Every structure is written in C-alpha cells, then in structure tokens.
C-alpha cells in the first residue's frame, strides 16, 4: 500500500502516521520527494481500513496494491480449488460441469421428467428453485419445502446432485440436510448474515454475482463464506445491469478470465438469466466455454410457454440435447483455455 501525503504536510504529522502504522505491525518507509512525501507499507495490508487513513487531513491519496480478499485470492493459493460434490467435481481440470433444470420446481412429473432428460443429454447436476426471489410478491414464490422434497425425489430417480437457492438463514439446517449445492442468488450476494452462516457449514455454495456487483465485491462475498471456514465456494457470472435493455442483463464474459486471474475458485456461467431470452442461451453458453468457464447453469423446461417462472429464457430438453452435443464438440476440439498462476 502506498500513501501519498499532501504537499507541505507537517513533518511531525507524517511521523505520527508512520508510528501508528508501525504499531499495527507494518514495515513503513517514508520517501520525501520535491513536493510530495510518500509512505510505503509492507506487510499484509488486506485488513487495513483505508477509510481511516483517508480521513487523515494530511493524506492526499491511498493506493492499494493488494486486494482486500485473501482466502479467495490466487496470490495466496496458486492452485485451482476443486469443489467435490459427492464424487462429482467442479473446478481445476475437472470436466465442464453442467447444471440444468427448470427455474422453479412445479410438480413431481415436471421435475422428474426434466431431470431424466437433462441427465440423458449429459448434465451432471439438477437445478430447480423451491424458494423463489421474485420481484413481485404476487408472482409464484415457489413450492418451498414441498419443492425440496420433489427435488429429492428427482435425485433418487436420476442420481443427479441437486442445486437450489436459499433465501433465509433460518433454512440452513434443512438445506444442509437435503441439498447438494446451496445456491445464493444474485439478490442475496451481499446478505452478509446469510453468507457468514453458510460459512459455518461445509456444504458447497454456488455464489451468484449480484445484479450490480463488481468482480471485487463478488470475491469479497466469497471471502465472507470462506472466512468462516467453508472453502467450497463456486462463483457464478449471471449477467449484470447495464444501460442495455435488449437483454435482461449483460453477460460479462470478461469476468471469467478476470476471476481466473484473481482467484483460485471455480467460476461458472448462467447464460439464461444473463440473456433472459431462450434463443440466446446457446451462443452465450458456447462463448462461456470458449472463455474458460468451469461450468454452466442452464434453465431447461419441458413446457416453457406454461412455465411458472422464466419460461422466456428456458430452453426445451431437445434444444438442451443439441446444445450439449455442440458443447462436447467444442470441448473435444480443445477450445477451453486453461488458466493457472503461470499464465495469467
Ligand atoms: C435463479 O437461478 O433461479 C435465479 C433467481 O438467479 P439469479 O439469482 O442469478 O437472478
Ligand atoms: Mn430463473
């Protein structure tokens, strides 16, 4: 960290600040320039409260060299994290992990039929919302615990591990018991109480990027979970709010190489919520593979026109089958880049 003092900052004030920083355990060097005095800090600055330094009336600017996240940082953990889910894995050199299923669980027939078809096409995990975060309180809110039971039935029928979204810390025990990967949705990415409680479990957590969250904010949210001891975090780019409104969100494909450089955590892409349009799911899914995503999460519905949620962005099982065929060809052709601390 570098602190630039204001021109003509009194010498004694510089020494007071230097002393304070030394007391916090940093190695501090003071360099006097012609106009500015620059203080350099060596040590683990990830926990420094920059705001407090900036509040000093003689400080002109603070430049952070090190990121505030540590456990999620590739710098301190160069090898890729591989998250194990009952023998299936996501991250590192694992196969592309494809999670597929409806936005919401609607009935036993619906979830079992979709689970069987996506499994046949090569999906390795089943998704399905039981507790739905809807913009309107009058929209379908999910089947709640009945939805979890139906997901378990679909898991029994197919063997696919299940992924579903949690909304409240009150439900954590139930989710730990019932679910294989707990999803934290975009709207809860900064629900810090929820993140901390999930950090106390050892369940794999699928953490989706917030609607207007920066990459750094996403990684800080991962840090919340990890700092409580749970290192099984999978990140998800699902599109962000921009001025563009043709699509529901804007898929930030550059987030994938950026996250791969900054972090060792696996990162997957959700082309369904990014586009909000079923016909864009295929090209965006392929693009995600080409930029090096560790996996995909795709909404598949057997009757999109009558879906209770997100039919407009759901692809049919047949389209999913074709997409998986194309994706396998892409993967077979070696288009997936491999990121490591040596090449990013
Ligand atoms: C979902 O996956 O069903 C969902 C609501 O996604 P997001 O949190 O990304 O909007
Ligand atoms: Mn959805």
From TrEMBL:
Q: Which GO terms describe its molecular function?
A: 3-deoxy-7-phosphoheptulonate synthase activity
Q: Which InterPro entries match?
A: Aldolase_TIM (IPR013785), Class-I_DAHP_synthase (IPR052899), DAHP1/KDSA (IPR006218), DAHP_snth_FXD (IPR041071), DAHP_syn_2 (IPR006268)
Domain DAHP synthetase I/KDSA: start-end pairs: 83-328
| Enzyme Commission code | 2.5.1.54
Q: Where is the DAHP synthase ferredoxin-like domain?
A: 1-67
Q: Which UniProt keywords apply?
A: Transferase
Cite the Pfam families for this sequence: DAHP_snth_FXD (PF18152), DAHP_synth_1 (PF00793)
Q: Which superkingdom does the taxonomy of this entry point to?
A: Bacteria
Write down what this protein is called: 3-deoxy-7-phosphoheptulonate synthase
Taxonomically, what lineage is the organism? Bacteria, Bacillati, Bacillota, Clostridia, Eubacteriales
């Amino acid at each position: 960290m570098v602190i630039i003092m204001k021109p003509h900052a009194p010498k004694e004030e510089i020494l007071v600040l230097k002393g304070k920083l030394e007391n916090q355990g940093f190695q501090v060097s003071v360099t006097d320039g012609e106009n500015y005095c620059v203080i350099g800090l060596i040590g683990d600055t990830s926990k420094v409260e920059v705001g407090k330094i900036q509040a000093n009336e003689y400080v002109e600017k603070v430049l952070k060299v090190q990121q505030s996240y540590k456990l999620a940082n590739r710098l301190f953990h160069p090898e890729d994290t591989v998250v194990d889910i009952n023998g299936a894995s996501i991250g590192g050199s694992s196969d592309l992990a494809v999670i597929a299923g409806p936005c919401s669980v609607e009935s036993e027939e619906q979830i079992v039929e979709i689970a069987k078809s996506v499994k046949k096409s090569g999906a390795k995990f089943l998704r399905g919302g039981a507790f739905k975060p809807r913009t309107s309180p009058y929209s379908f809110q999910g089947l709640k615990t009945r939805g979890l039971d139906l997901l378990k039935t679909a898991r029994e029928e197919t063997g696919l591990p299940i992924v579903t979204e949690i909304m409240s810390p009150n439900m954590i025990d139930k989710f730990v018991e019932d679910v294989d990967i707990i999803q934290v949705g975009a709207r809860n990415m900064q629900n810090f109480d929820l993140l901390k409680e999930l950090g106390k479990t050892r369940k794999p957590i699928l953490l989706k990027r917030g609607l207007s969250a920066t990459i750094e904010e996403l990684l800080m949210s991962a840090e919340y979970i990890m700092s409580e001891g749970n290192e099984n975090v999978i990140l998800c780019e699902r599109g962000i709010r921009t001025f563009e409104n043709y699509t529901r969100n804007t898929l930030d494909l550059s987030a994938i190489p950026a996250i791969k450089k900054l972090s060792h955590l696996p990162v997957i892409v959700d082309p369904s919520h990014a586009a909000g349009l079923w016909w864009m799911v295929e090209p965006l899914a392929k693009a995600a593979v080409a930029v090096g995503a560790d996996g995909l999460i795709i909404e598949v519905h057997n009757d999109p026109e009558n879906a209770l949620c997100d039919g407009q962005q759901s692809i049919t099982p047949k389209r999913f089958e074709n997409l998986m065929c194309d994706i396998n060809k892409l993967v077979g052709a070696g288009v997936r880049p491999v990121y490591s601390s040596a090449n990013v």
